[in-house]
C-alpha cells in the first residue's frame, strides 16, 4: 500500500521544503500521512475548479504549486472561500500539498520545465544560489539549436504553452536573432537586470510591468517575452508528476490538471487600431 507519506517523501526529495523562501508557505496543508493514496492530481492553483477536478477523477491528493494560504490565518471557517476549500478537501478525504519557491529553485524545477517546453537546452541558473558550486537558483539560461527571429521565437513560446486570454507578447525588434535565452517561471521582472548581465538575446517570464520593461529596453537589455503567470508554471505539473511516477514505480496514478486557472478570461484587441499621443 502506498501512503500519502510515501508520495510526499518523493516530492520533498525533489523539492526540499527547507529551500523555500522564509515568507513562503509550503508543505502539507491538510491530510493524514498514513492514509493510502492511489491517484494524485497536479495543478498550479488550489482553487474550487481544481478541487472539483480532484474529486471528479477520484484523487486522494492534490499537489499545487501556489499556496492556498500564503498569509497567516486564525481560522478556516467553511463560509470563507479558502476555508470552504479546506472543509471540502477534508470531508472528501483529499489531501492538499504545496511546493512553491522550493520548486522554483530546485534542479530541475519550475524554470527547467518551462525551458524544456520551449525547446531550450539548459546551461545553468539565471540567478545562482550563493552556495559555491550550487547548480540551483532562480530562473534558467538555455540555448536553441539555431537562432531564429524574435517574432518566430514568440510563436514558438505561444505554441509550447497552454492557451490563455493573455496570450504571449514580446518587446523588441521583431527580427532580432534569438538563440541564448533566459527564462523564469512566474513573475520575473525583478530579474530583468540579471537577464541583461547574462547577455542573453531574450528573456521569457510573466507579469512584466510597463515601466520596468520600458526602462530595460531603453538600456539595451534583451528582448522580452511576456506570458501568462499560470501558463509559465503549468509545465512544472508534468515534471512533478514524473517525479512521483518514477519514485513509486507506477503504484500511484498521476494526473495533470486540465483546468485553466489563469484569472484572465477575455482578451480583446481593437478592431480599429485606435490612436494614442
Automatic annotation (TrEMBL):
A divalent metal cation binds at residues 65-66, 104, 229, 233. The lineage of its organism: Bacteria, Bacillati, Actinomycetota, Actinomycetes, Pseudonocardiales. One of its GO terms (cellular component) is cytoplasm. SUPFAM superfamilies: NIF3 (NGG1p interacting factor 3)-like. It comes from the Bacteria. Coiled coil: none annotated. It holds the Pfam family DUF34_NIF3. This is GTP cyclohydrolase 1 type 2 homolog. Keywords: Metal-binding. The keyword Metal-binding applies. It comes from Saccharothrix ecbatanensis. One of its GO terms (molecular function) is metal ion binding. Homohexamer. The keyword Transcription does not apply. Belongs to the GTP cyclohydrolase I type 2/NIF3 family.
